[in-house]
Design goal:
Distance between the termini: 22 Å
Number of helices: 8
Number of strands: 0
Radius of gyration: 18 Å
Order of helices and strands: HHHHHHHH
Amino acid sequence: FALFIGVAMSVTAFPVLARILSERKLIQTRLGSLTLACAAVDDVTAWCILAGIVTLVRAGQHNAPLWLTLAGLVAYSLAMAFLARPLFRRFARSYDREGRLTDDAMALLLVLLLGSAMLTESLGVHLLFGAFLFGAVLPKDEGFVHAVTGRLQAVPLVLLLPVCFAFPRL
């Protein structure tokens, strides 16, 4: 628990840092680029360490041996990076062609996201890391990212925000 909390606290608020640098017009400077690069390396390292800690803790609860879990995670990460990433470019090309994110494309993205999370959970690593890896390999085209986040923001705004106000002790 102490390792988990310690590593979780070391993860930076990368989007907040990027917004601060952008608002202060420092993002294009050498200092801003260095700051973002250091924060990115810090976050990736912290998430990898966190995945390792969760894997070690869950090793006793999971039926598969630890070496099989780690080998499966490495194989899945490589498959996502080298096989799935080029396939995901089709989503961005479809967005460019259509000018919007279709309902079918959004549904397929969500199914693939849940499948990625489920696969890492079945490997004995927390499902959060499957979702994180899925997001990491998605195309980063500005319009595509804006369309996906715009569609996904409806759920927390419409469903979860009212719940926070209705049940403030949650």
